[in-house]
Write a structure and sequence with these properties.
The protein has 27 helices and 13 strands. The protein is an alpha/beta fold.
């Protein structure tokens, strides 16, 4: 066995005996890159841009020359010339070392289940780990490799699934299916494959058991909280939450349906004709037929009333009549669709709007480029119908709690409106409305979740590190989870409260479960992104928050603030400021603005924001604040401290 380069779980070079040996990180990245190139070589300028970006070729080439010098010296010490250098080119000798990333690209046959097990072992660890390289070309290459890994996993899993016969073989396939789901959680084909693997004929019972296992992990945290409440150790804020709901957390029970309650009428849905914003007239014509098929598909569900396509098409062309039509016909939901071009591919974008408060409850994009609409549109229509029906069922479950109490429901909607604006007065108004709701319905989980949110957001805005606020948030979120374990909001707020107390693993687990329960729930995805920022994983955070913004294009300030924080952690300070500039109230992110301008050496602009922070919080102290705001990795805190100190705090 010769030298080997390991890329999964961190970038490491191992000698023939399996011991890790020192080698420049950029040198190992060059090795990994060139071993995946067709001719095992590249020109120096391309490599310099790959490692350091396109901003300044002279600086990048100078940095490359220094790295090459260190590589030459280390290769001489190891006695193995992995890389060879000419005036303009750099090559890798593919016979000098092996690369774990290439194991399954070879054509040599392998036993399918051993192949799948080995592939799962690799892909369960993060590719390249914590390598620091922020160039556009690097991220393009990284995305390409990760896409290849996913394709290899899918092919290996499908091969094994076709021949699986024993329970142990099916377990191997299911483990692979979950890895694939984590890589492509929003891909419709992946979801269909997952259902097939987990046996849709048995109502995916195995998959439900998996979700229950994840719930149990979160419940352990909830049980710990309840035990503390039983022992009288809740903080003042938690007691306030219990008083607001009229009960202690430990007494919370799922709300029972009132005896003799009238049966709620079925919700009514209208599907508007698609708007064609693509460059293909044919796509618009075909999509109209597709929407008609989707409408027919909804007729298979006995829990919905669907407006006939003829009426939907007529009303779709008269914008001024829509509101009165919805009111006169008691329309509860509208499915709005459009055809557009994204990255050269024709896509169908669909969003579900809850008419009474004009809330987008679900959205998804379906690629049409690989679909023969004439042949496959019924398959696609069923997929859309299933997704929308499941979301309506989830949303109707939430509404059912308050539908018999119009006053309480109105207060809940008013509270939600206040909660969408991140200012202290609005947070406190939202809390007041939600507490009024809880006086009537003490186990109404969405209101309990909202109360938890007001406390955690107040903790962030006041920047004083008041632990009572976080304990109150945690208690209210725990109450929400016990009241309704099928809704994402309780787990989401439990995760936020845990995050702000520095319990990163518990927070990440809660957020993952929340996103599983609400895979198209933009607010949940946005908070998951915020958690990833605090877990010092800004690249993942940025990917998630961009997904949330796509689902909720008129984004609340919290989304934009999270995107700004992720960009700051990635060293993309101008992008950070761009997101802050889009906020309705940019003053919420004044500390981040000051740090970003300072890191761009625009100290005059930074000072403006420093003065504004001092006006609202004269006692603000950088070290005290950073000690209170959780960041998992020290480099993350150091980067924020550097910007704030440089700005003048």
């Amino acid at each position: 066995m010769g030298f080997s380069l390991h890329t999964f779980g961190g970038l490491r070079l191992l000698d023939p005996s399996g011991r890790q040996v020192a080698f420049p990180e950029k040198g190992m990245l060059i090795l990994a890159y060139l071993l995946t190139c067709q001719n095992y070589g590249s020109d120096r300028q391309t490599l310099a841009r790959f490692l350091w970006g396109d901003d300044d070729d002279a600086v990048s080439l100078s940095a490359l020359r220094k790295t090459v010098s260190r590589i030459r010296q280390r290769q001489e010490e190891l006695g193995t010339p992995f890389l060879s250098f000419s005036k303009h080119l750099i090559y890798v000798d593919p016979g000098s070392l092996s690369l774990d990333d290439l194991v399954f690209e070879k054509d040599e046959p392998a036993e399918p289940f051993l192949r799948l097990i080995h592939l799962c072992e690799l892909l369960s660890r993060p590719f390249l780990g914590t390598v620091t390289c922020e160039s556009r070309r690097y991220y393009e290459w990284l995305a390409n490799r990760q896409g290849l890994h996913t394709a290899l996993l899918r092919d290996a899993m499908e091969t094994a699934f076709r021949i699986a016969r024993t329970p142990s073989e099916y377990e191997i396939v299911k483990d692979a299916a979950l890895l694939l789901f984590r890589a492509e959680p929003y891909d419709p084909d992946t979801l269909q494959l997952l259902l097939k693997v987990f046996n849709a004929e048995r109502e995916v019972e195995d998959f439900r058991q998996l979700i229950e296992q994840r719930r149990a992990a979160i419940s352990r945290g909830v049980d710990t909280l309840n035990l503390a409440a039983d022992n009288g150790s809740d903080e003042a804020g938690a007691r306030e939450t219990s008083r607001a709901s009229g009960t202690g957390v430990q007494d919370a029970q799922p709300a029972a349906e009132p005896v003799g309650a009238p049966k709620t009428s079925f919700p009514k849905l209208v599907l508007l004709p698609p708007r064609n914003q693509s460059s293909s007239p044919e796509a618009g014509l075909m999509a109209a037929s597709l929407i008609e098929d989707i409408t027919i598909g909804f007729c298979a569900f006995n829990s919905l009333q669907v407006i006939a396509p003829h009426s939907a098409i007529r009303i779709g062309h008269y914008q001024e009549d829509k509101v009165s039509f919805f009111e006169n016909n008691s329309v509860t939901y509208v499915l709005d669709t459009r055809i557009s071009n994204i990255g050269g591919e024709v896509t169908l974008f669909a969003q579900l709007v809850f008419v009474p408060d004009n809330e987008i409850t679900w959205a998804a994009r379906f690629g049409l480029g690989q679909v023969d609409l004439v042949r496959d549109r019924r398959t696609l229509s069923r997929r859309v119908a299933l997704s929308v029906s499941n979301e309506i069922e989830r949303h109707e479950t939430t509404r059912a709690f308050l539908e018999l109490n119009p006053v309480a429901y109105h207060r809940y909607l008013v509270g939600k409106q206040h909660l969408s604006r991140l200012t202290l007065p609005n947070l406190r108004l939202a809390r007041e409305q939600m507490k009024a709701v809880l006086e009537t319905s003490p186990h109404f989980a969405p209101a309990l979740s909202a109360v938890a949110r007001t406390y955690s957001k107040e903790w962030l805005l006041t920047a004083r590190g008041n632990i009572d606020l976080l304990k109150a948030a945690e208690a209210s979120a725990a109450h929400a989870v016990k009241a309704s374990g099928d809704l994402a909001d309780g787990y989401r707020e439990f995760g936020v409260a845990k995050l702000l107390q520095g319990a990163f693993d518990e927070s990440a687990g809660a957020m993952e479960l929340a996103e599983i329960l609400g895979p198209h729930y933009a607010d949940v995805i946005a908070d998951h992104a915020d958690t990833m920022v605090h877990c010092s994983r800004p690249a993942i955070a940025l990917e998630k928050i961009e997904r949330a913004i796509e689902l909720n294009p008129i984004s609340p300030d919290a989304y934009l603030w999270t995107a700004a924080g992720a960009n700051y952690a990635l060293g993309q300070f101008e992008d950070s400021l761009d997101y802050i500039g889009k906020m309705a109230d940019p003053s919420l992110a004044d500390r981040l603005s000051a740090a970003s301008w300072a890191m761009l050496d625009q100290l005059d602009r930074a000072q403006f924001f420093v003065r504004r922070v001092r006006e609202t919080n004269p006692a603000f102290d950088v070290d005290q604040w950073l000690a209170a705001v959780p960041s998992k990795e020290q480099w993350h805190k150091d980067l924020y401290r550097e910007g704030l100190k440089k700005a003048g705090f």
